[in-house]
Design brief:
The complex is a heterodimer. Chain A is an alpha+beta fold. Helices cover about 35% and strands about 15% of the residues of chain A. Chain A has five helices and five strands. In chain A, a hairpin with a 2-residue loop joins strand 1 and strand 2. In chain A, helix 2 crosses helix 5. The radius of gyration of chain A is 16 Å and the shape is globular. Chain A starts with a strand and ends with a helix. In chain B, helix 5 runs antiparallel to helix 8 and helix 9 runs antiparallel to helix 10. By secondary structure, chain B is an alpha+beta fold. Chain B has three domains: about 45 residues, Uridine Diphospho-n-acetylenolpyruvylglucosamine Reductase, domain 2 (2-Layer Sandwich); about 120 residues, Uridine Diphospho-n-acetylenolpyruvylglucosamine Reductase, domain 3 (2-Layer Sandwich), CATH 3.30.465.10; about 110 residues, Enolase-like, domain 1 (2-Layer Sandwich). In chain B, strands 4-5-10-6-7 form a five-stranded antiparallel sheet. In chain B, strand 13 and strand 14 form a beta hairpin. Classes of the chains: A alpha+beta, B alpha+beta. At the A-B interface, strand 4 of A face helix 2 and helix 6 of B.
């Protein structure tokens, strides 16, 4: 039986009727067509489905859409402001921190959550914060550098 | 991966939840963080007819500190355990174990209750909680019971919980003065790893420099359930805390362990690692004991 829920996605309230066995990831991608959130392993191992749920980064493949009823959700589509890319997105472009791009939305959302807690993280803190996000191109070094450059810029 | 179909329930209170569990006895799975249940359902290992979510029950959230005891709501997440000040300063071994669980993304979902009831032999939180002498509160309709955590586990995935019961809270007594705990996890990678061996140790001293009057060493991933290491604890009792004592306790713990060979590692390797890691966990516990004492006088 379908349940009526409201998801506040990227600042916009979305009313939906969903089956309880659908994950937040599926509903974002298929019902709301927000395909920036990727489906990788679908088992909580890879982090490509990362979204910010009520202020915290989580694997959206391990959350039922009905559990997220009433929650605030930020996906990669909601990160850029009206004036252009988010500083992290800009830094990823500038530093070449993107190869195939599949892990990028999750990497950037995990990083944005880290920078909110700690605006100038060290390398170790960055690597820990990203430890649930896998990059199969193995481009971690440039990703870490991109995040560090944002921390430094904001201090300067 | 599709989840099998189920009826979804979202009780707003513990009373409502226990009544529901009584009505649909045996056909329901409790959903807390979902990091285990939803994976098992996707893999076809579980297909409950009913799923009862605890996420709307306010009473199961938060950490309460009163009269020398700490009550962790069953839905407190691993991330909260890792970051809460009282856990960091008074239960550092637990803080370390929470920080070793899964990844930051998993820690924001996974709950203390879930990490207990799933009863995985290599789970991160149970050894640390047992080392601090935790009890758990189980509730069903019109009845509740308090159980020492160490008598809860029966085997991999098997516990003393009854089909209509819900684990509602974990209760820890605040550690006495001159005491501390430590946790060490051995895996092949740093995140999203199932422990090869994980060890928690706790001891309390009878004064600033000893002797040891209370000790608990808990070995994980080397038996069907997290186990106490009785002969290692006996080695410590009545002695002064120092490196060669910790060494003897490590040797004894290796004899207590009952590891098996599997694709993650051999029994022999695990036994050797129990020896080394017990020693390290005891050193960490002693460091924490000294640090807590220093903070008390500061």
């Amino acid at each position: 039986m379908k349940t009526l829920i409201t998801l506040n996605v990227n600042g916009r309230a979305r009313d939906l009727a969903v089956e309880p066995n659908r994950t937040l990831l599926d509903v974002l991608r298929h019902d709301l067509e927000l395909t920036g959130t990727k489906r990788g392993c679908d088992l909580g191992e890879c982090g490509s489905c990362t979204v910010i749920l009520n202020g915290k980064p989580v694997n959206s493949c391990l959350v039922l859409a009905v559990q997220a009823n009433g929650a605030e959700i930020l996906t990669i589509e909601g990160l850029a402001g009206p004036s252009g890319l988010h500083p992290l997105q800009q830094a990823f472009v500038e530093k070449g921190a993107i190869q195939c791009g599949f892990c990028t939305p999750g990497m950037i959302l995990s990083a944005s959550s880290l920078l909110q807690k700690n605006p100038k993280p060290g390398e170790e803190e960055i690597r820990t914060a990203l430890s649930g996000n896998l990059c199969r191109c193995t481009g971690y070094q440039k990703i870490v550098e991109a995040i560090q450059s944002v921390g430094e810029r904001e201090q300067g | 991966m599709l989840l099998p179909k189920f009826d979804y329930h979202e009780p707003g209170s513990v009373d409502e939840a226990t009544r529901l569990m009584g009505e649909i006895r045996g056909q329901a799975s409790v959903l807390a963080g979902g990091t285990d249940l939803l994976v098992n359902m996707k893999m076809g290992k579980a297909a409950p007819k009913h799923v009862v979510s605890l996420s709307r029950i306010e009473a199961l959230r938060g950490i309460r500190r009163e009269q020398g005891a700490l009550t962790l709501g069953a839905c407190v997440t691993a991330a909260e355990l890792k970051e809460q000040e009282v856990i960091k300063t008074e239960f550092n071994g637990l803080c370390q174990s929470a920080g070793s669980l899964g990844s930051p993304l998993i820690r924001n979902l996974a709950t203390v209750g879930g990490n207990i009831v799933t009863a995985r032999p290599a789970a991160d939180l149970p050894p640390a909680l047992m080392a601090y002498g935790a009890s758990i509160l189980l509730k069903k309709e019109k009845a509740e019971r308090l159980l020492p955590l160490e008598s809860f586990f029966k085997g991999p995935g098997q516990t003393m919980i009854e089909p209509e019961e819900i684990l509602c809270a974990v209760i820890l007594n605040e550690p006495p003065p001159y005491s501390g705990g430590g946790y060490v996890k051995l895996g092949v990678r740093k995140a999203l790893e199932i422990s090869l061996v994980n060890i928690a140790a706790f001891f309390a001293l009878d004064g600033p420099s000893g002797p040891i009057k209370e000790a608990r060493i808990v070995l994980g991933a080397v038996a069907p359930v997290p186990m106490r290491a009785p002969s290692a604890e006996a080695v410590l009792m009545g002695e002064k805390p120092e490196d060669n004592l910790f060494e003897k306790a490590g040797n004894a713990a290796a004899k207590d362990a009952k590891p098996i060979d599997d694709f993650r590692g051999s029994a022999e390797y695990r036994r050797d690692m129990v020896n080394v890691l017990t020693k390290r966990a005891l050193k960490l516990a002693y460091e924490e004991a000294k640090l807590r004492e220093w903070r008390r006088w500061k």
